[in-house]
Design brief:
The structure is a single chain. Helix 1 runs parallel beside helix 3, helix 5 packs parallel to helix 18 and helix 20 packs parallel to helix 21. The protein is built from 23 helices and 9 strands. Strand 7, helix 21 and strand 8 form a beta-alpha-beta unit. The radius of gyration is 33 Å and the shape is elongated. The chain has about 550 residues and is of the alpha/beta class.
Length: about 550
C-alpha cells in the first residue's frame, strides 16, 4: 500500500529506526547544547528542527540530523564571540544554513569527495580531542572552559579543586557508556542508560552538583536576527565556517549511509535540506547541526529505510520536550560530560592511527598538521591548511612521474636534396625534447632547464604525444620557451595530439607557431625537421656560389 509515494511495508522498520535514533539523540542533544554554551534547550531545539526538515528536504533517505561534535565546537566559538548578544548568534547560525543552501543550489556538494582522507582524519582526530579536553573541568565539578588550551593550562589548578561527587558521577557515566555489553545497547543505548542512572543517583543521594537547569516545556518562539554593521565580518565569517563544516560533516555521513544501504544519496539536495533545517533551527533558538553518523547508523541498523524514520526521530524528541522538559533540568553536568567523552573517543579515527607504521610519511604529515591546527588554532583553518598541504604533496608526487629527455637525431639525407648539405652535424643539428607524464606547473621548471642547453640546435622538436594532460601553466611556460628559442633562430616543431593542438591554439600558441609546425606523430615531425634542416643548408650553401659569381 502506498500513500504519497510512501510504501507502508517500510513503516515498521522506519518506526523502530526513528524511535531508536531519537532515544540515542536525546542525551547527545542535551550534552551538545550545554557544551556550546547556548544551553541544553538549544541542543534539543536544534535536534528537533534540523532532524525534521533535513529528513523531509534532504537527499539521504536514512540520514538522522542534529547537533554534532564538530558543529558544536564552532557554534561554541560563536556563542563565546558574542556574549550577551543572542541576536548576533542567531544571525551566525542563519547564515550557516543559507550558505549550505547556496552550496547545494550551485551543485558544489560533489566536490567534498575530493577532500583527501588524511585531512578528514586529522580533522576528526582534532575534534575528538577537543571534545574530550573541554569535558575535563565539568567532570571535576568545575565550570567549563571555552578552548582546549584553556583546559590544558587550567588542569593543574582544577585538580586541586575537585568536586568528588561530580567526579564520581562522571567516572560512573564513562564506565557505563564504555562497558555496557553490545547486546544491551542494541535494546537501550548506553548513553541513555548512563543519563538515567547518573541522574537517579544524584537525585536520590541529594548530590550537591551542577545541573543542566530549567528547560522550557513548550515550543520556542521564532526570533529574527539583528546585528550592527561593525559585526558583519565576524558574523559572516563564523556563519560560513559553520556552513563549510556542516557540509563536510553531513556529506561524509551520507557516504557512510550509502555504504550501509547500498543506495546513492543526492549531495546537492542534502545540502539544501541541511540548510533549510539549520535556518529554521536558528530562528527557533536551536543549535546548528549536520548529518550525525552514529545516529544514522543506529537508524539503519534498527530498520529505518526512508526519510519517515528521520521524521519519527524528530517527533519523539518533540514529545519529550513537551512532556519531560522539567525532569531534564535535574540532569547533572558531570553525566553529560561523561557522555561527551565517549563521543570524543568515538570520533577519533583509529583506522589511520592503526596504520601509523605503514602509511606513507606524507599522508601522516598532513594528518598531524591538520590535527595540530584543529586543536590549537582553528577548525576551518585546519581544513584549508590540510587541503593545501595535501595538494602540494600530490603535485610533488605527480611531478616526479614526469620525465623530460633530450636526444639528438641523425640527419639522414633526403633524395631530392644534396647529401653534403645535411651531413654537417657539428653545425646543424636536430634535437628532440620528449616529455612523458603529466605536464603541469610542477614540471615546467624541469622542461625549461632542458631547453636552456639548446644553443647551436637548428631545429628543435618538442614531443608531447606521451603527455596525458597539460595545464595552462605548462602551456604558458612552453610558449615563453618557444619565444626564446625563436629569438635564437631555432625552429620549433611540435608533436601533439589533435586535442592538444586545439587546446594550445586556443591558449595563444597559434601566434607563435604556424599551422604547419604541428604534427600528429613522431615519424612525421622528424621527417619535417629533416626537410627544414636540409632546406636551410641548401639556402646557405647557395650564398657562397652567388657571391663568387658576383665577384
Amino acid at each position: 500500500m502506498k500513500v504519497l509515494n510512501y510504501d507502508f511495508k517500510h513503516l515498521r522498520g522506519d518506526v523502530c529506526g526513528g524511535l531508536t535514533a531519537g532515544i540515542v539523540a536525546l542525551p547527545l542533544a542535551l550534552a551538545f547544547g550545554v557544551a556550546s554554551g547556548a544551553g541544553a534547550a538549544a541542543g534539543l531545539y536544534g535536534a528537533i528542527a534540523l532532524g525534521l526538515f533535513a529528513a523531509v528536504f534532504g537527499g539521504t533517505q536514512t540520514q538522522i540530523s542534529g547537533p554534532t561534535g564538530p558543529m558544536t565546537i564552532v557554534a561554541a566559538s560563536a556563542v563565546a564571540a558574542f556574549p550577551g548578544h543572542p541576536q548576533y548568534i542567531i544571525a551566525v547560525f542563519l547564515i550557516a544554513g543559507l550558505g549550505q543552501i547556496v552550496l547545494g543550489s550551485a551543485r558544489l556538494g560533489t566536490f567534498v569527495r575530493f577532500i583527501p582522507y588524511p585531512v578528514v582524519s586529522g580533522f576528526m582526530n582534532g575534534i575528538g580531542v577537543i571534545i574530550i579536553l573541554l569535558q575535563l573541568e565539568p567532570l571535576l565539578g568545575l565550570p567549563s572552559v571555552s578552548s582546549p588550551m584553556a583546559a590544558l593550562l587550567g588542569l593543574g589548578s582544577a585538580l586541586g579543586s575537585i568536586q568528588m561527587q561530580s567526579l564520581m558521577l562522571g567516572v560512573l557515566t564513562i564506565a557505563i557508556v564504555f562497558l555496557v555489553p553490545a547486546r544491551i545497547t542494541r535494546v537501550v543505548p548506553s548513553p541513555l542508560i548512563a543519563l538515567l542512572v547518573g541522574t537517579a543517583i544524584a537525585w536520590e543521594g541529594h548530590f550537591d552538583v551542577a545541573m543542566i537547569g530549567a528547560i522550557p516545556s513548550a515550543l520556542p518562539h521564532p526570533t529574527m536576527p539583528g546585528f550592527e554593521a561593525s559585526q558583519v565580518g565576524r558574523i559572516v565569517g563564523l556563519g560560513l565556517a559553520l556552513a563549510v563544516l556542516g557540509t563536510i560533516d553531513s556529506l561524509l555521513t551520507s557516504v557512510v549511509a550509502d555504504s550501509l544501504t547500498r543506495k546513492k544519496h543526492d549531495s546537492n539536495r542534502e545540502l539544501i535540506g541541511q540548510g533549510i533545517g539549520n535556518m529554521i533551527s536558528a530562528i527557533l533558538g536551536g543549535l546548528p547541526g549536520a548529518g550525525a553518523t552514529m545516529r544514522t547508523v543506529v537508524n539503519i541498523k534498527a530498520g529505518g529505510t526512508t526519510r519517515v524514520s528521520g521524521v519519527i526521530h524528530a517527533a519523539l524528541l518533540l514529545a519529550i520536550l513537551l512532556g519531560l522538559g522539567p525532569l531534564a533540568s535535574h540532569i547533572p553536568m558531570a553525566v553529560l560530560a561523561g557522555i561527551l567523552v565517549k563521543v570524543g573517543v568515538d570520533i577519533i579515527d583509529y583506522r589511520l592511527l592503526s596504520l601509523v607504521k605503514r602509511a606513507p610519511r606524507t599522508d601522516l604529515l598532513v594528518m598531524v598538521v591538520v590535527f595540530g591546527v584543529t586543536v590549537f588554532i582553528d577548525l576551518i583553518v585546519a581544513v584549508g591548511v590540510g587541503v593545501t598541504l595535501a595538494a602540494a604533496m600530490v603535485a610533488v608526487r605527480t611531478a616526479r612521474q614526469c620525465s623530460v629527455s633530450v636526444s639528438e637525431v641523425e640527419d639522414r639525407p633526403l633524395d631530392d636534396l644534396a647529401e653534403d648539405a645535411i651531413q654537417r652535424e657539428t653545425d646543424y643539428r636536430i634535437q628532440v625534447v620528449t616529455i612523458r607524464g603529466p605536464f603541469f606547473f610542477g614540471t615546467t621548471a624541469n622542461m625549461q632547464d632542458k631547453f636552456s642547453s639548446m644553443l647551436g640546435t637548428q631545429v628543435l622538436v618538442v614531443n608531447c604525444l606521451d603527455v596525458p594532460f597539460m595545464d595552462i601553466s605548462a602551456v604558458f611556460a612552453l610558449g615563453e620557451t618557444i619565444e626564446k628559442l625563436q629569438a635564437a633562430r631555432i625552429t620549433v616543431l611540435l608533436a601533439v595530439t589533435a586535442e592538444q593542438r586545439e587546446s594550445l591554439q586556443k591558449l595563444g600558441m597559434g601566434k607563435l607557431l604556424a599551422p604547419d609546425a604541428y604534427y600528429g606523430s613522431h615519424e612525421a615531425v622528424l621527417a619535417a625537421a629533416r626537410k627544414l634542416l636540409a632546406q636551410r643548408h641548401q639556402r646557405e650553401s647557395m650564398v657562397p656560389r652567388i657571391s663568387g659569381a658576383a665577384s
